[in-house]
Design goal:
One of its GO terms (biological process) is regulation of gene expression. The protein has eight helices and no strands. The protein has helices at about 5, 25-45, 50-65, 75-90, 95-130, 130-140, 145-155, 160-190. The longest helix is centred in the middle third of the chain and has 36 residues, at about 95-130.
């Protein structure tokens, strides 16, 4: 197996156009969708509603042709930076100390999880004919936002496929996670 099938193909990456011409109305509508979704998400008592509402609303409006989503590279880069800062600022001395104690177990778990996801990706390539990197990103664990960043910045990745599977996984976790956690907690108490 060639390394390039995991790396998204060989050759130089296309240059990034940081400040492309934008359609002002489409850009304003995209920003309004994001702001309205986040505001509505704060009012609705559903886990991750601030992420789900703009995502579902954008998908529906875009699919029906009512909205053209306009996301210039500079906005994506700024969003990625804010996301990274919010994750990084969540680390405290206590969290790092706890993580260091658990590091050996964490490393073994990571290796097993990577191997399991690689196996699932291989099965997906055999069943669907999708490229290996797209299949791996579609099955990899972690946040939808992180996988979206990696998929968008990797050449040759089928972003639609990756995001569809990741979104399905996200919905399953949100819907099945709490009842499953309650079931496990009840079993442990008994």
């Amino acid at each position: 197996m060639r390394i390039s099938c995991w790396a998204g193909g060989a050759g130089a990456a296309a240059p990034i156009v940081w400040f492309p011409p934008i359609q002002p109305l489409a850009f304003a509508e995209t920003l309004a969708l994001a702001a309205a979704g986040v505001a509505a998400g704060r009012l609705i008592p559903v886990p991750a509603a601030g992420l789900l509402l703009p995502m579902i609303g954008g998908a529906v409006l875009s699919a029906t042709g009512l909205l053209t989503i306009q996301l210039p590279q500079w906005l994506l880069a700024a969003s990625y930076a804010v996301l990274a800062w919010s994750v990084g600022l969540g680390f405290t001395r206590a969290v790092l100390g706890h993580a260091l104690k658990a590091l050996p177990t964490i490393l073994v778990s990571i290796a097993v999880l990577i191997g399991f996801c690689a196996g699932l990706a291989w099965v997906l390539t055999q069943l669907t004919g999708i490229d290996l990197l797209s299949a791996y990103l579609a099955t990899s664990p972690g946040g939808l936002d992180t996988v979206a960043i990696i998929a968008a910045s990797s050449r040759g990745v089928d972003i639609g496929f990756v995001m569809a599977l990741q979104t399905m996984r996200f919905f399953l976790v949100v819907l099945l996670g709490p009842p499953l956690a309650r079931f496990v907690a009840r079993q442990v108490r008994e």
